[in-house]
């Protein structure tokens, strides 16, 4: 029984091109319907779900009658923009059969490396999930340039898992999981059921590249598992054609390859927040806010802040100190220093009339806050 999988509340499911397009013969709507049925069941079981779907280039190629993946960037981008339409239409109509809706999100590298855009993407995704809609994410293939491409959606899916703080990343592919050698040339290869994502012996195993349609192969899936592990997520690499694959994962069946993070989610997030960002300012809290953060694990609201020091932008790291000047926590600010100056001491429902808009009711959301 895999308790980390059965207990996971937030899943990112990634479906690769080879699977989605039945090895190049256009979108496999029958297979999509079967996954959708299972994803709907997961949602009904209380799982929050984000879908990362490849297949735009492959769907566009089949529409254009192209049989081999073009290498010219402009042709790839043209194929992607044709295929993306069909891809999201197919997902929307399939979820629609169950009375569920989808939302298209196309991301580029810039969206995830710029902290302000990162927070915006995250807040939109959260809202969509709360609304019961399934976000369908792909790379924004038509605008990216070579230097800034994710290129493979395994990496994109891992960054999305970081973004939404998923507990589980499920990478559906055309093999049953990760084997101890590339099964295309090694019929004797054995499936690896469990490993630690950071196990260096996996590098040699995942050496081969992707198939004719996909780009990544196992190497990018392993890298994705390591990236996802940074925010404490587990990764499953598993065959998308295995019967009732998602249902069976949810019931704890030992299928596919489970790659575990070295640390739990909270420890991983703490390390990420503590280690990677420079602090840009200080918020001086009143005693009530200190207590709310320390004892009740609450978000920091503007009303509990006495003064703002420094110059920070939305998304940058600030230190929170108590009335005694001692550090209580640090976290990512939802408002810039200038905006924060105007809203401190005020109730959150006044933010909109003071600033003319309201991004979030919290000055620092508890998910982006680490107690010191
Ligand atoms: N150790 C390995 N175990 C399993 N598959 C491997 C391994 N090394 C390379 N591969 C290849 O990786 C392919 C899956 O990657 P890819 O074609 O990028 O699929 P997707 O479109 O699902 O991302 C498999 O078909 C397989 O041939
Ligand atoms: N964004 C591209 C996906 C890139 C890709 O090939 O990914 P994958 O099949 O997951 O290795 C598309 O939609 O065609």
Largest sheet: 8 strands, mixed
The number of helical elements comes to 15
Q: Which range does the strand content fall in? A: 15-25%
Mean pLDDT: 90
- Silhouette: globular
Rg is 22 Å
Number of strands: 13
What low-confidence regions span 5 or more consecutive residues with pLDDT below 50? Answer: none
Which structural category fits the helices and strands?
alpha/beta
Helices and strands, in order, run as HEHHEHHEHHEHEEHHEHEHEHEEEHHE
Walk across the major sheet and give the strand order. Answer: 3-4-2-1-5-7-8-6
Query: How many angstroms does the end-to-end distance come to?
Result: 36 Å
Oligomer: single chain
| Percentage of residues in helical conformation | 25-40%
Distinct small molecules: adenosine-5'-diphosphate, ligand VHF
Sum up the structure in keywords:
372 residues, alpha/beta, 8-stranded mixed β-sheet, 5-stranded mixed β-sheet, 15 helices, 40% helix, binds adenosine-5'-diphosphate, binds the ligand N[C@@H](CCC(=O)OP(=O)(O)O)C(=O)O, kinase, cytoplasm, amino-acid biosynthesis, proline biosynthesis, glutamate 5-kinase activity
């Amino acid at each position: 029984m895999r308790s980390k999988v059965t207990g996971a509340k937030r899943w990112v499911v990634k479906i690769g091109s080879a699977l989605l397009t039945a090895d190049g013969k256009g979108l496999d709507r029958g297979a999509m319907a079967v996954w959708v049925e299972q994803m709907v069941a997961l949602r009904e079981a209380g799982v929050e779900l984000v879908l990362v779907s490849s297949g735009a280039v492959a769907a566009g190629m089949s529409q254009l009658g192209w049989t081999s993946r073009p290498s010219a960037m402009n042709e790839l981008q043209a194929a992607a923009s044709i295929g993306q339409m069909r891809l999201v239409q197919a997902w929307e109509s399939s979820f629609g059969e169950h009375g569920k809706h989808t939302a298209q999100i196309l991301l580029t590298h810039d969206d995830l490396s710029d902290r302000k855009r990162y927070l915006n993407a995250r807040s939109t995704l959260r809202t969509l999930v709360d609304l019961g809609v399934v976000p369908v994410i792909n790379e924004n293939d038509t605008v990216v340039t070579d230097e800034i491409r994710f290129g493979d959606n395994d990496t994109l899916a891992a960054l999305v898992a970081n973004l939404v703080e998923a507990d589980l990343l499920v990478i559906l592919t055309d093999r049953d999981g990760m084997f101890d050698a590339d099964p295309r040339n090694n019929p004797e290869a054995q499936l690896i059921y469990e490993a630690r994502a950071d196990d260096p012996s996996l590098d040699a195993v995942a050496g081969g590249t992707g198939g004719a349609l996909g780009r990544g192969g196992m190497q990018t899936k392993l890298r994705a598992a390591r990236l996802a592990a940074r925010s404490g997520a587990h990764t499953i690499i598993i065959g998308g054609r295995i019967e009732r694959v998602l249902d069976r994962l949810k019931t704890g069946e030992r299928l596919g390859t489970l790659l575990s993070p070295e640390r739990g989610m909270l420890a991983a997030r703490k390390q990420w927040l503590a280690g990677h960002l420079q602090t840009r300012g200080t918020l001086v809290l009143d005693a009530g806010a200190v207590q709310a953060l320390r004892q009740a694990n609450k978000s920091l609201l503007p009303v509990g802040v006495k003064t703002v020091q420094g110059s920070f932008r939305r998304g940058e790291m600030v230190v929170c100190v108590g009335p005694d000047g001692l550090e209580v926590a640090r976290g990512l600010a939802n408002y810039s220093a200038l905006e924060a100056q105007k809203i401190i001491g005020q109730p959150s429902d006044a933010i909109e009339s003071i600033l003319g808009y309201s991004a979030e009711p919290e000055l620092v959301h508890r998910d982006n806050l680490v107690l010191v």
